Structures are given as C-alpha cells and as structure tokens.
Amino acid sequence: MRIATYNVNGVNGRLPVLLRWLEQTAPDIVCLQELKAPQEKFPEKAILEAGYHAIWNGQKSWNGVAILSRLDNIQEVRRTLPGDEEDTHSRYIEAIIDGILVGCLYLPNGNPAPGPKFDYKLSWFERFKTHAAYLLSEEVPVVLAGDYNVMPTELDVYKPERWLDDALFRPETREAYKTLVDQGWTDALRKLYPDEVIYTFWDYFRNAYGRNAGLRIDHFLLSPQIAPRLKAAGVDRDVRGWEKSSDHAPVWVELSALVWNSS
Fold first, then answer.
1. Which residues bind Mg(2+) (predicted)?
2. 219 labelled catalytic
3. Could you tell me the pTM of the whole model?
4. Residue 42: DSSP 8-state
5. Is 53 a catalytic residue?
6. Which residue of 159, 161, 173, 194 sits 20 to 30 Å from the alpha carbon of 57, by its own alpha carbon?
7. Is 258's pLDDT higher than 90?
8. Residue numbering of the annotated binding site
9. pLDDT tens-digit profile of 194-228?
10. Among the options 52, 92, 106, 148, which is catalytic?
C-alpha cells in the first residue's frame, strides 16, 4: 500500500498537476493540504474520474484538507481537531481506510514569531499532541500525514543559521515536534534515512528548487501498530519542477501487507 501527502497550494489552480501526478504514481491513499477552496468548489468530479473517492474540509482562500482513496470506501471519523470549538480553520480531517486510521493535517505556519500567529501555532500543536496521544491509546494502526510546518533538526533545512527566528524552526516548535514523536510515533522518512538531506518544500523565490535550497516540513508519523509495515518512503521531487506546480513536492510511504499471526 502506498500512502502519500501533498500540499497542493490551491487544489483548483494546481488540478492539472495533481491529476498528472495521480495518474503517474497511483497512490492508494492521498492526504492533501492547502486546498484554498470553499467546500462547494472542491473538484470532486475530476477526482472521481481519476479513480478516487474523497472527503474534504474546504475553506475559502486558504487552508483546507482532504483525503483521497482509490480503495473501496472512506469512513470519515472527524473533520476538526478536538480541543477548541471556536477554531474555524480547516486544518484537520480523519478517516478509516482499509483498517488504517489516517489523519491529514495542515499545521499553522506561525509567522511572524513571536506574536499571535505563533501563539496559535503552539496552541494548535498542543491540541494535536493531546489528540495524537489519544490515538496511540487506542492501539490501532494510525498514520498522521501532512504539512507540519516544522523542520525538526538542522539536517531538515538548507542553511539553518538563516532560520533561527522563523516560526518553523524556533526552539519551541522543534521541541513540540520532538515531544510529539517521543509519545511513540515513528518519523517514517527519518526511520529509513536517518542521515540523508531530504527536502519536501522549495520556495518560489531565488531559484530555491534549482539550488536545492529546501526544507523538510511534510512528515509521516506512524503508530507502533503500523510502523513495522514500513518498507519504503520518499519524495517525488521532480513534481516540484513541473510547470505551475506547488512549492511542495508529494511525499509517500510504502507499507507491506498486513500479515496475521495465527500462533
């Protein structure tokens, strides 16, 4: 099984890129972020014609998340992150697909920091950690995929000295991610490639993609019930170089089939 995550940076404006990538790679499950489209403007027909069912939580002009599946069904569990009934940002959606609970997230950017946006980022992170701990307590296969807007270590950012005051790299953000992972999650890419430079985002400015001046901010966290099934992971880096592409590249994991122990 292949599960992918992709911050599309506008699902309608990037629809040709999204459909081309889906046709070429055919992931079984896809988490999308930054739809930048209200609920009624999600391109459901085009997604269905590409062979995918979808659930989504849209929002006009910004945010928005979706889960696509070419498997039989998507059982929606929730479309908001618990902990703040007044939070209207469309940043989280969760579903069960083929026995796996998939959480798709778009964590707040938080800039400028310090400030109210950074405070919101950290408070959202705390809510997310609380919910992640609850999911672990359920002892079921869980995949938490999306744009976390955090570079966990210096290995995950080009020229880290230039990012010290950025909300994506501030000590508070990195510590929040570390305490999340330390709950018992496996960072899929780092599990397989602990020492490699891997980026998932390249800014549109200053030829960042051409210079490979990137960031690793799109992550897969796997619960202990599914982490042993991890057999491959990677970044479809070339997609970032396509015409009118997102500033993110798709990230994916390959999971082996579930093997039942009859003993």
1. 7, 34, 147, 149, 247-248
2. no
3. 0.97
4. S
5. no
6. 173
7. no
8. 7, 34, 147, 149, 247-248
9. 999 999 999 999 999 999 999 999 999 999 999 99
10. 106
